[in-house]
# Entry
Amino acid sequence: MQKWPNSFKKWFVNHTDMPADVVMDLPRITIIGQLHIYIENHKGVLAFSNNELRLSLKHGHLQIKGDNFVLKNILPEEILLEGLIKQVFFIDE
Amino acid sequence: MKKNWNEAFFGHVNVTIKGRLPEQFINLCVKNGITIWDIKRIDDKSVSCSLLLSDIRKVKPVLKSTDCRIHFVDRKGFPFLLKRLLSRTGIIIGMVLFLAILFVLSNIVWRIDVTGADPKLESEIRKLLKKNDLHVGAFEFFLPSTEDIESYLSGKLTKVTWLGVSKDGTTYRVDVVQKELPKEDKQPGPRNLIASKKAVIYDIFVENGQAAVEPDQVVQPGQLLISGMIGNEKDPKFVGAKGKVIGETWYRSTTAVPLKSNYKTYTGNTYTKHQLRLFGWDMPLWGLEKKPYKTFDREVTVKPVHFLIWDLPIAYKRITYRQTEQANKKLTEEAAVKAGKEAAYKKLKGKLPDKAKIISRKVENKDVKDGVLTLKIFYIVHENIAVQNLISPEEQQEKIEKAKEKEKEKEEKSQDN
# Structure
């Protein structure tokens, strides 16, 4: 039952010019070099340390690896991480 | 470094959060709308972060529910800066001194402008003001009110028609309208001198022109006194008549003097109250009696206190009570006559030109009715009755010619006869 609204959304995104993150409630991730990573539409911090940040998303997790991580700003829907970013993983559950 | 004005102005703190799950704390903070930034992991059980000073209270329940502990590391921003500054006595003393000096300077006279006066009068005015303690650098508190200065100045200065004293902040302005003395008439052109009122000629001095009247002659108003036409009729010359015609004139005056009069006198006793006015409230400082005398005149002086351009809601108020007494005065008839004569004399003197002389006076009628003495006095006065009257030579010439023609006609007629 959960599947057909999702497939409808996909079809909607494909056939209109609406941005996918708005329609499908997906995270929008902006990376500036290795310096900053800016994640919108996250669902909370799961783990945070100097070289790892785990964020919960609507579906699954987001794992970011690197060095000297500092959470520059955190708001209910967005996060700005500073440091040396090396890897970004999407982890399905 | 990211800097937001709120942080700088309202202050923020650097803290370390210790607990088993600091991430939990961060999530809850975000959910509760607490601004949190610059989060850094220190070790397994602690993170450091920054919080707004105004959010500190909101953090406490969050700490409790996530079982974390807070430790303040650093305090930054204006409130903390202020606190540090306030702990230095030197700065406090300096600030207080600054305000005090500003306050003192706001209540000082910085300038006195005198407009409309020539240099001589201006220096005279400044001298008089100085006598009244009003000079540059004087304290406004101890100065008399502008109305008082105004009446003082206009009483002392004779050359002035109008005088206004006003205050603009720390500047006093004296506006003067100077009397313009009438210049010697140099009215060119021929003119006659004619009588201004009915009189008997007492004396006549002719400087220029031809006398048309003689002493002891009765003249009517408008009658020619000194003619501006000289020479014979065939070849008249016209000049500006000049001279003095002293005429004996008569005046009657009626004065009423009440024999009984009530009037108020000051006993010389005064009682002064000093009050401080705060926001419209009068706070007595000295002098607590409500009504010191039964009968009195009250005089209120209010001195507002200024700070820069503002009037502070603080003012100094002085109320002076002068005790008065009702006095009854009964005049004898003789005294009343004397007073009436004096009053009438003064009144007449005011109406007459300066050089007029009152030669004699006579009480014509004395009448007491309902406690009021009515005096009728008759005066004989010597005064100059001559006034100028312009003449145009052409008209005069025409008149003369007409007169000549008439005479000729008459002669012809008589010859015919």
Notes: The mean pLDDT of chain B is 83. The radius of gyration of chain B is 45 Å. Residues 111-178 of chain B form a domain with the Ubiquitin-like (UB roll) fold (CATH 3.10.20).
